[in-house]
Specification:
Helix content: 25-40%
Distance between the termini: 75 Å
Keywords: Magnesium, Metal-binding
Binding site for substrate: 96-99, 118
Pfam family, one: RraA-like
Radius of gyration: 20 Å
CATH topology: Glucose Oxidase, domain 1
Strand content: 25-35%
Protein name: Putative 4-hydroxy-4-methyl-2-oxoglutarate aldolase
CATH superfamily: Ribonuclease E inhibitor RraA/RraA-like
Binding site for Mg(2+): 119
Largest sheet: 10 strands, mixed
Number of strands: 12
């Protein structure tokens, strides 16, 4: 039995229709709807910017090794997001321009990598979404071990195969499969509330009384 070196069969994933609904929702609003404790702040967009969303195709690999990431590209279905737990180690790059080009050609939605990338200039100039923890010129090894379609942790963010991954210029979030519909509804309402607030600000009708009310409730003193 190969412990830690296996490819598991994916059993579920969020639907394309639900992914499309999330496309209109800022990650910040989704984060607010998840009590502001979800996700990671350490991974940043390495590409030119824009939205990323889709079901997670998870990879756990030995730090600095990308053999299983290559296999994940081969297994990926169009729209999948390849999410790589490389232990957060930044010494060796996990993907670069060649793998990003291959994944984009295959229809992969993007990469989320708890590790480094290289060919940063080429990736930054492109629109194919890549979020990672850092940049390193040293290339990867291709020896394994690793697993595909297993539970992983990205900077403390648990990702199960088929969970919804969403990312924009503010960062990346994992929305659990079982909660994705409910969180979508909460976020749609949150976005509508914020859009209304912006309209009120622009119209000069915003109500700012809550600031002084909060200060008074918290015991702030106004002194001469």
């Amino acid at each position: 039995m190969a412990i830690g070196f296996a490819i598991h069969k994916a059993k579920r994933k969020v639907s394309p229709d639900l992914v499309a609904r999330y496309r209109t929702l800022p990650v910040a609003n989704i984060s607010d709807s998840m009590s502001r404790i979800a996700g990671t702040n350490r991974l940043r967009p390495m590409h030119a910017g824009g939205w990323l969303g889709g079901p997670a195709l998870t990879v756990k690999t030995r730090p600095g090794d990308n053999l299983m990431v290559h296999k994940a590209i081969d297994l990926a279905q169009p729209g999948d997001v390849i999410v790589v737990d490389a232990g957060g180690v930044l010494v060796n790059a996990i993907v670069g321009e060649i793998m990003s080009t291959l994944a984009e050609k295959k229809g992969v939605a993007g990469f989320v990598i708890d590790g480094s990338i290289r060919d940063a200039g080429a990736i930054r100039a492109g629109s194919f979404p890549v979020l990672a923890a850092g940049v390193a010129h040293r290339g990867p090894y291709k020896d394994g071990p690793g697993e595909i379609n297993c539970a992983i942790s990205i900077d403390g963010m648990i990702v199960e195969p088929g969970d919804l991954i969403v990312a924009d210029d503010d960062g990346v979030l994992c929305v659990p499969y079982d909660d994705a519909e409910a969180i979508c509804k909460l976020t749609e309402a949150k976005k509508a509330t914020e859009e209304k607030a912006i309209q009120q600000i622009l119209a000069g009708t915003g109500d700012r009384r809550w600031v002084d009310e909060a200060l008074q409730r918290l015991g702030c003193e106004f002194k001469d």
